[in-house]
Every structure is written in C-alpha cells, then in structure tokens.
Automatic annotation (TrEMBL):
The gene is ispG. Keywords: 4Fe-4S, Iron, Iron-sulfur, Isoprene biosynthesis, Metal-binding, Oxidoreductase. InterPro entries: Dihydropteroate_synth-like_sf (IPR011005), IspG_bac (IPR016425), IspG_bac-typ (IPR004588), IspG_C (IPR058579), IspG_TIM (IPR058578), NO2/SO3_Rdtase_4Fe4S_sf (IPR045854). One of its GO terms (biological process) is terpenoid biosynthetic process. It comes from Oxalobacter paraformigenes. This is 4-hydroxy-3-methylbut-2-en-1-yl diphosphate synthase (flavodoxin). PANTHER family: 4-HYDROXY-3-METHYLBUT-2-EN-1-YL DIPHOSPHATE SYNTHASE, 4-HYDROXY-3-METHYLBUT-2-EN-1-YL DIPHOSPHATE SYNTHASE (FERREDOXIN), CHLOROPLASTIC.
Length: 420
C-alpha cells in the first residue's frame, strides 16, 4: 500500500462574503450576511388577525430557536393586528424580530397602516405579484419608500410559482431569436435570477441601501434550487435566504430540504435558512426549526443544543431499552436548553452518547463528553457511564433514565461556567 500521498483533511467551508443586513427589534439585533452565523427563521400559519393565536405561535417558534419569524400580512385586519402582536410579544419577553410577508396589496397596507410598518422589523416583497405594467413599478416603489422611511430591511423573494410573467415572456422571445436557443429550464432560471437582481438594483436606485436587501429565489426542485443559487451567488453580493419552497410532508420534505441546502451551505452559499415543511394535523410548527438547527449543527456551522450520538440497534441490542433512553435523553437536553443556554455558556457544544451493546458502546461512549453503554442481549445487566473518556460509574436498577439525567446535570454544572 502506498502512503506517499498527502493526508486526507476535512474540507473547510469558505463563506461567501455578502452585504451584512441588520434586522432589529428593540435591543435585539440579528445580522444576516457579512460572514455572520447562518440565521434560522420560520413562519406562522395562524390567521394574523387573531392576535393571541399568532403571538402564541411566534413565542413557541422563538422558544424553539427561530431567530426571525415571518407573518402573513394580507388584509387590513392583519395589518391592524401586527402592532398588537408586537406589543403582546414584548410584554411576554419575546423580542424576536417580525417580518411581514406581503403579496398583491403590500403597497396599500404599508402606506395605510404606518403602525404596522413600524412594528415590523423586515418586509418581504415578491416582485412577481406587486402589480402589472406601470403599476408594478409604482407599487414596488411605494413599498421601498416605506422601507426607506422607517429604515427597514427588505427581502426580495422571487418564487417559481409566481414569476413575473412579463419578464419571462421577454426572455423567452429573446431566447427564440438565438442561433442556439437555451433549454426552457435555463430560461426559467434566468428569469428567476434576473427578477431578483433587477429588483434589488431598482430598490437601490430608489434609495434603499445594499445592506438593507436580502434576496431569495425559491423553487421546489432540489437540483433547480442548487443551480439557481449557485448562479445568483456568483452574480451578486447581496445576502441570500435559502429555502426549498413547497418541500412537502414529513420525511420527504426534510430530506429534500436538507439535500438542497446542505450542498449550497457547503459551498459557502446562504446567510439565512428556512425549512418549509407541511405540518401534519395538530403537529407543532417548531419541527422545521429543529430540522434547520440540526442541519447547521451536523455540518459544523453552529451549535444549538448538545448532540446525542446513538446507534441504530441490531440483533445484539435490547432495543426497547436503549431506544427509549436515546429519545428521552434528546428530549431532556432540548427541554433544558432554554434554561441552560444563558446560565451555562458553551453547553450547546457538549456531546452525549447512548449506545446499545458492547460492540461499539464503550468506544463511542469514550469519544463523547458523557456516554452510556447499555447491555445488549445476553450481556450483564450493568450500565457503564463515561465522562471525557474515563469510566465514571456503573448504573443498575430500574431508574437508569433518571440516574443518567442526574449525571448529565451535574456534569453541566461542573464543566460550564455558571452565571447567576
């Protein structure tokens, strides 16, 4: 075997430098772009005019880790509710910035309801549905004027399903005159990119700073999203919002979103992300936050909560026991993070291993900050626990779960700087 080659070294992501966009609410400032950590955001699915329900869901998303929450603002009633929602959240101690999602009538709502315009920390404009013909330019200009007046950043969000038909028709006609016409798919890509960059450049002409603009080009196909964002990133320095629109339900939506975003993030593309999942009936909206956080943490880009390493189980394992402990440990750590993140800085980098038998259990447990190796089929009913590579104790009895959580808590208290 030849060992003369260079050693294999893990790749390092080089983030593309983009303009830094500051999104503020009171003393809370979120920076998107300029090399800042990738921001996780989400969106409510309540009727915005229902102040209590919307404020409750925003608070739930903020507790789960959403650093920016978007609201639909589609009616006069919704616009009137926005400042009340903001006041309600502030009174409860949730200072998460709110973004207003505007389609069709945003120019009217932002100008007629200045309290709404002031209460929002960011506006989302879709250039494909701000109007037609001359009205399109006027309506877009009205919204940018409000953003300038109140010093609000704007996301110019182009969507595959609501593309500017006039622009698309013009590009199709130009393509037909080429000696070697592009594939229709490539023309669609160009329409998305041109709409986003052209709208951003127009906003700058109207007085909005380049550091007040975030761009997005949402599509629902994984390869389409990768192709569009690679070119969008190559052609402009604006901060970019990543997300696969209409990703789908359950595992399909998760896999599709992660497949697309992980490629782009690895290439240094993307400054803020949203995982757009269709929730099941009664399912919490917070699932998309967990997926976004786990994507960034798995890629080594951010830390949000201690990582639980666990084996999948096999014929050697008493699977019910270790599966239950792996799930309860992960739930315990996530439940504690709202209390721990301020009191014990750095705890989010901790790793915990829950292993199911003697084959890899002790070795994996030693690699983690805290590890437990459960007995497999036919193994002694003793459970060794390791801390930082050294065996600490052996657990026995009926309350392994409670004993293990107590060990985790003591480790956190002794290893991370406690703040009063």
């Amino acid at each position: 075997m030849n060992f003369q080659n260079e050693p294999v070294i893990a790749g390092r992501m080089q983030r593309k430098q983009t303009y830094g966009v500051t999104v503020k609410n009171g003393k809370n400032t979120v920076l998107i772009g300029q090399g800042a950590p990738v921001v996780v955001q989400s969106m409510t699915n309540t009727d915005t005019s229902d102040v209590e329900a919307t404020a409750r869901q925003v608070a739930e998303l903020a507790r789960a880790g959403s650093e920016l929450v978007r609201l639909t603002v589609n009616t006069s009633e919704a616009a009137k509710a926005v400042p009340l929602i903001r006041d309600r959240l502030d009174s409860l101690g949730y200072d998460v910035p709110l973004a207003g999602d505007f389609h069709y009538n945003g120019h009217l709502l932002l100008t007629r309801f200045p309290d709404c315009a002031r209460a929002l920390s960011k506006y989302r404009i879709n250039p494909g549905n701000v109007g037609q013909g001359a009205k399109k330019d006027a309506h877009f200009a009205d919204m940018i004027a409000v953003a300038c007046r109140y010093d609000k950043p704007v996301r110019i969000g182009v969507n595959w399903g609501s593309l500017d038909q006039g622009l698309l028709e013009r590009l199709m006609n130009e393509n037909a005159e080429r000696r070697q016409p592009w594939p229709v798919q490539s023309v669609m890509y160009e329409a998305l990119i041109s709409s986003a960059i052209g709208s951003a450049d127009r906003a700058v002409e109207l007085g909005l700073g380049q550091d007040r603009i975030v761009l997005s080009c949402k599509v629902s196909g994984v390869q389409d999203l990768i192709a569009v964002y690679r070119e969008l990133s190559r052609r402009c320095p604006y901060a970019l919002h990543l997300g696969l629109t209409e990703a789908g339900v359950g595992s399909k939506g998760i896999v599709a979103s992660v497949a697309a975003l992980s490629v782009l993030l690895q290439e240094g593309i993307g400054d803020t992300i949203r995982i757009s999942l269709t929730p099941g009936p009664g399912e919490a909206r917070t699932k998309e936050i967990v997926v976004a956080q786990e994507l960034l943490q798995t890629m080594g880009m951010r830390n949000f909560a201690p990582v639980v390493v666990s084996c999948p189980g096999c014929g050697r394992t008493s699977s019910g026991l270790f599966q239950k402990l792996a799930n309860s440990t992960q739930d315990y750590l996530r439940a504690q993070m709202p209390l721990w993140k301020d009191r014990f800085p750095g705890v989010e980098t901790m790793s915990v291993a829950v292993m199911g038998c003697i084959v890899n259990g002790p070795g994996e447990s030693r690699h983690a900050n805290i590890g437990i190796s459960l007995p497999g089929n036919g193994e002694l009913p003793a459970v060794p626990v390791f801390e930082d590579g050294e065996k600490k104790t052996t657990l026995r009895g009926e309350n392994i779960e409670g004993q293990f959580q107590e060990i985790i808590l003591k480790y956190v208290e002794s290893h991370y700087g406690s703040k009063p």
